[in-house]
Amino acid sequence: MVLRLDGVVVRDAMVARIAAAAAVNKGPRVCLATVLVGDDGPSQIYVRNKHKLAETAGFDSRNVVLPASASQAQLDDCISDLAHDPGVHGILLQSPIPSELDFESAVSLVPVEKDVDGLTVASLGRLVRGLPGHASCTPLGVLRILQHYNIATSGKRAVVIGRSTLVGLPMAILLQRKGVDATVTIAHSRTQDLAQVCKQADILIAATGMPRMVNSSFVKDSAVVIDVGISRVDERIVGDVDYEAVSGIASAVTPMPGGTGPMTVGCLIENTWAAYLWQTQGHEPDIV
Ligand code: NDP
Questions:
Q1: Which residue in 162, 184, 199, 273 has the most C-beta neighbors within 10 A?
Q2: Of 241, 285, 236, the residue nearest 260 (C-alpha)
Q3: CA distance 203 to 182
Q4: What distance in Å separates the CA atoms of residue 119 and residue 4, rounded to the nearest whole number?
């Protein structure tokens, strides 16, 4: 019987732990700030969900909304103001932003301590160097699922399909980190014999956006399969993994929805709490 790795359960346990710690905290209140540019519908929903979960954790949150017509200078000023505001501990610039604006340049203004999305060059550099900092929420969420279900990673073979700086690459870096200690392969659209490469994995993580690409031919007996991909097919959300097809072979699988998605938002809360402790008490974030 396959184990369903339930991201909602793990997220709720994680947020409850943080809420309990925040409730007895004597310092100033924790504050997460989001910046939303334009009126993209899904982005509005994502931001609302982030604020709801921040509230559940007992945090304050602010949402700064700029019009789609905002200039780069307006966006940069907004990020800089939040960066210099001691009452704000975490900053998240919601993507996508209008194509005329430069996301990289705006996000580079987020100081590393407040970079709760883990997307700045400084945060990624720290991750690569093994220095304290914030890891990107989706790969961190995958690591937390593995840890929650006591899935051994040390010495195990992990294959990550996808090499983006948002998901695949930081995922691979996290998995090989000392203390996690997996032996990691990164696969991508140019990988030859992809199914055979994936079939080597004790832990297979799919982050491509190719609906149900991972079928039974990709999965070794008793492997753990983590589905990060999100696609919309016939008005339904589907992942990279054909859950039914791999369930007979894998020992554990994340559902989509209900797996890695909730963990991404949960880890935003974890990173915001870590950011707060870093800025107010000098405790550096400890990812592993
Ligand atoms: P990107 O498009 O930036 O990267 C996709 C990666 O998948 C690329 O490295 C690409 O290879 C690889 N890829 C694409 N097609 C194939 C294929 N046929 N075979 C092997 N590799 C392939 O996407 P992101 O990394 O930003 O996101 C990945 C998925 O995760 C998306 O579906 C996204 O919606 C989802 N997502 C889910 C989140 C969650 O909370 N669950 C959060 C964030 C994203 P190459 O580099 O060669 O082009």
A1: 273
A2: 241
A3: 9
A4: 29
Element (H, E) at 136: none
CA distance linking residue 191 with residue 171, whole number of Å: 18
- The DSSP output letter for 283 is P
The answer to whether the pTM exceeds 0.85 is yes
The phi and psi torsions of 47 (rounded to 5 degrees) equal -65, -40
Q: How far is the CA of 88 from the centre of ligand 1 (A)?
A: 31
Tokens matching residue 218:
């990709």
The secondary structure of residue 134, as a DSSP letter, is: P
pLDDT at 286 over 90: no
* Ligand 1 within 6 A of CB of 162: yes
Dihedral sign of CA atoms 163, 165, 171, 177 in order: positive
178 is catalytic: no
How far apart CA 123 and CA 135 sit, in angstroms, is 7
Q: Judge if the beta carbon of residue 229 lies within 6 A of ligand 1.
A: yes
Tens of pLDDT, residues 193-223: 999 999 999 999 999 999 999 999 999 999 9
Structural domains in the chain, CATH included, are 24-111 (3.40.50.10860), 137-261 (3.40.50.720)
Q: Are 207 and 162 in contact (CB under 8 A)?
A: yes
Helix axes 260-281, 137-148, angle to 10 degrees: 100
Write down how long the chain is: 288
Q: And the tokens for 12? A: 């709720």
Pairing of β 236-238 and β 231-233: antiparallel
Distance 80 CA to ligand 1 centre (A): 30
Q: How far apart are CA 64 and CA 54, in angstroms?
A: 15
pLDDT band of 288, cuts 50, 70, 90 = confident
List the structure tokens of 13.
């346990």
